[in-house]
Amino acid sequence: MSGTIRFGTDGWRAMIADDYTFDNVRRCAQGFAEYLISKGFQGEWVVIGYDNRFQSESFAAACAEVMVANDILVYLTEEATPTPVISYSVVDKGAVGAINITASHNPPSDNGFKVRNRHGGAIAPEGLKDIEHRIPELIGDIKRVQLSEALSDGRIVSFDPKPAYVKQINRLVDLEPIKSAGLTVLIDPMWGNGAGWFSQLLAGGTTKVVEIHDFRNPIFPEMIRPEPIPPNVDVGLQKTLEHQADVLIITDGDADRLGVGDENGVFIDQLRVYGLLAYYLLEVRGERGPIVKTLSTTDMLKKLGKIYDVPVIETGVGFKYVAPAMLEYDAMIGGEESGGYAFHGHVPERDGILAGLYLLDMMVKLHCKPSELINMLFEKVGEHYYDRIDTRFTGDSQARRERILNANPATIGGFKVTDLNTKDGYKFSLGENGWLLIRFSGTEPIIRVYTETTDQDKVGAILEDGLRIAGLK
């Protein structure tokens, strides 16, 4: 017998050699194969890719062996590949889904198992539950063939996904003005799968691309984890100043998330970046369509929705909610607080590479530095300030949830509480002054306390009250 495997907001992640073993990865692959067969996809193709973490290529090969044994054919990437490229390959190859071996932004001790649907997007919560239920408890119930045998007879095909993705990027954004803009762009792929992509896409002009942390190193030096937020981005921000760069573009470990630093070496938080990207599509490109946002991201989107007369749809946290909503509403853009953004005409999946290129295109089209873009956004929607505290906890999580639910604070940070939304976590509305969200991580014993407010001086007080409500102070 083996332990129960539970998927979080974006698949399953665990510590390598503890819970994350070859046997458990094969169990996940068997569950996904049975899920696909239940949908009538026996004999169809899936894409399998992986990141730069320890042994990721071997875990991916193990998944391929299981899928083929269940009569699911496999396109296996030749090398470590960004998550958005894997997702686009599903559509390009006409596959019915994907497996991605990655722990994204988790610490170096971890690895993960993500699944995608035939649209290249996250599978909805009910689908993830179905896969979980099909994961066998006994190792003996896993089907498996040898990788060499399946490669030789064509049931596994090794392929390079880069050319098709590059063609797609060139359809979505005109790269020539960026190449010829004479910018200095600092790229920090955080030792991950985004290394080399911007350099290749923007080569051949006067724009100079400088990359740091751009080769495989699964211990992720100079950062706690490959997540594009402080303090992990501090080295990149300092290098921005040293190179006198116009902008810092950061992608996380699997390159599906975007982080940004301005020309002054100041980090631009993910909520502001989402506001900029939506403003870019609406104002610069003249696009119209629904905006999908998680409840943990910025209310600037609601204000932009009113200004440009487009609907804003709010979901739970995670792309397992965002991706289905994007398809349902044919959304223009979808995104979340963690720095993941997806776009119409592409795949309903976070794409840090495309998001970074869109931001560069915005700079070129509007002839603005990043700090000037923020000022332009604030002229439209007013100033907004965001911060988040993540705290590990022990003990009964249900007791903590009940404590939060029963707190009933009249004020938070000095602002009147006007509503409580329990769709995904506990979001306290502070009227026009902002909000506080308390939410339990889906993958780790962590409580996240977030706020966005129009009053910069109140950020700390709101977060302090949030920690007290959660019993962390």
Radius of gyration: 22 Å
Return the average pLDDT rounded to an integer: 96
Architecture (CATH level 2) name of the largest domain: 3-Layer(aba) Sandwich
Q: What kind of sheet is the major sheet?
A: 6 strands, mixed
Overall, the morphology is globular
CATH top level of the largest domain? Answer: Alpha Beta
Total domains, how many? 3
Order of strands, widest sheet:
1-5-4-2-3-6
Oligomer: single chain
What structural class do the secondary elements suggest? Answer: alpha/beta
Q: What fold name stands as the CATH topology of the largest domain?
A: Alpha-D-Glucose-1,6-Bisphosphate, Chain A, domain 3
The count of DSSP E runs of length 2 or more, i.e. the number of strands, is 22
Q: What share of the residues lie within helices? A: 25-40%
Number of helices: 16
Could you give the topology of this structure?
Elements: E1 12-15, H1 22-38, E2 45-50, H2 56-69, E3 73-77, H3 83-93, E4 98-101, E5 110-116, H4 125-134, H5 147-152, E6 156-159, H6 162-172, H7 176-179, E7 184-188, H8 197-201, E8 208-211, H9 234-242, E9 247-251, E10 258-261, E11 267-268, H10 270-284, E12 291-294, H11 300-308, E13 312-315, H12 319-329, E14 333-335, E15 341-343, H13 352-366, H14 370-381, E16 385-392, H15 397-405, E17 411-412, E18 415-416, E19 419-421, E20 426-429, E21 434-440, E22 446-453, H16 459-469
Parallel strand pairs: 2-3, 2-4, 3-6, 7-8, 7-9, 12-13, 12-14
Antiparallel strand pairs: 1-5, 4-5, 9-10, 10-11, 14-15, 16-22, 17-18, 19-20, 20-21, 21-22
